[in-house]
Description:
By secondary structure, the protein is of the alpha+beta class. Helices cover 45% and strands 23% of the residues. The protein has a single domain (8-114), classed as Alpha-Beta Plaits. The longest helix has 23 residues, at 118-140. It starts with a strand and ends with a helix.
Amino acid sequence: xxxxxxxxxxxxxxxxxxxxxxxxxxxxxxxxxxxxxxxxxxxxxxxxxxxxxxxxxxxxxxxxxxxxxxxxxxxxxxxxxxxxxxxxxxxxxxxxxxxxxxxxxxxxxxxxxxxxxxxxxxxxxxxxxxxxxxxxxxxxxx
Length: 142
């Protein structure tokens, strides 16, 4: 759990995104490794924590910690935008494949990740509800 101004929380997500048109632009090990470095650089620059990262031939999987002041869409935009910028600088020939300058597709998949199972949270809330109801009865004199 992360500490931030006046609170504690965890915003961990599994992100998946693809290259435009699912082109296998990242099939070379050299390109994959540089892409990983560029995504990590984008994350570092914007305060996004990378827990795990895998670059495949045409898509990326990442487990990321998103800062509490940043939306999921903003995090995606920052990772995809800056990494694409660096990839185009490192590999100018990519402009031939992507003449409009869009390396990543507009689509994205994300899912929240937690170290607590849903059942545990639901049980905690149910127990808290019964505690609150008991307290209300005790203090209201009913």
